[in-house]
Amino acid sequence: MALSSGLTPQGPGAVPTKPSKNDVSPGPIFTPSKHLAYSQPSKVWSLRDLGYPDNQGISPFGVSEPFRLFSDEAIDEMRRELFTNRKIWTDHRFSSKYAECQLRGYARDHAPFIYNAWKSPETLRIISNLTGMDVVPVFDYDIAHINVSGPSVPALSPLPADRVDKPAKETKTEKPRTEDENDAIVSWHNDSYAFVCVTMLSDCTGMVGGETALRTADGNVIKVRGPERGYAVVLQGRYIDHQALRALGGTERVSMVTAFRASSSEVRDDTNLKLVRPISNIDELYNEYAQYRFRILEDRFRGRRERADQSISIKAPFDVKETRAFIREQIEFLEQMEEQVMEEDDWKKIYNGS
Ligand SMILES: [Fe+2]
User: Fold this and answer.
1) Which residues surround ligand 1, an ion (CB under 5 A)?
2) How far is CA 244 from the centre of its chain?
3) How far is ligand 1, taken at its centre, from the CA of residue 214, in Å?
4) How many CB atoms lie within 10 A of CB 54?
5) CA of 317 to the centre of ligand 1 (A)
6) pLDDT tens across 264-309, in order?
7) Ligand 1 centroid vs 275 CA: distance in angstroms?
8) What is the largest CA-CA distance in the chain?
9) In what order do the strands lie in the sheet with 184-189?
């Protein structure tokens, strides 16, 4: 198949070209009938399959095996958007001890095809069917986080200090790493957001590894195969301890991670920004976090006020116990939020382990 102009070549020996221009020509509009190529995963693991109770998470869903999500044409266009827009690589690239190159918070302004792919009601229906509840992207900043790695990743210009997430001081004594940790890109962790969808944008021919390891309730580990090009894996990562295992071979590995939460304001929301603060524009991250969390409260309070209106008009009794429980829940919601919008000095201290 002929590659459209500006697309990064792929395959053995192919080297992703460093984005060289800023004037990105407009591409196709995301069209579900052409760009989605969904086929069901061979298996979906529920929380119960992993030994956890249903209420461990916000839905009974655990993790899916890889499933086809996007057509080749869609992946080509996503790559074109990413690899031809210099702005994404200059203003939205972050570096951390886990990954040298991550692209974040660029989609709304610089990658309309990618952005619309994740906002499309058809895409959301697929993810919602898998997770067993209606979901939406958590916020725009975490639409299509990109991890870029592999031997042929081009040498990149140094990043400004505020976009390099490195501990301020060297750790002198390091615990010997276990065999497990040697294979892992990121050690055991829970994600920031309820659900994540990891989509592969690279050709994985000749690649080994790249699985996601999940800890079951009884301490065993199961591994879910990593997705191929155009395939995705969905995980309720906020509530399941997991790690990404290293992938070897191949020339480049570009994966795309989009975070989801329940669309209903009634569902609990446990977003924890610890892992994303060091690799984000903090103003954008906090603003978008505050926006959706306050919207949840707005919805909940509007619902309660309307109920009060109704009760007054029909002279219904007031439910003290139930109202106090509602109030308590909102206090906890606000306390959780207060903890999340941490001052920079405080989260940096925690990050650096001091
Ligand atoms: Fe994760």
Assistant:
1) 191, 237
2) 13
3) 10
4) 11
5) 47
6) 999 999 999 999 999 999 999 999 999 999 999 999 999 999 999 9
7) 9
8) 76
9) 184-189, 242-245, 212-215, 221-224
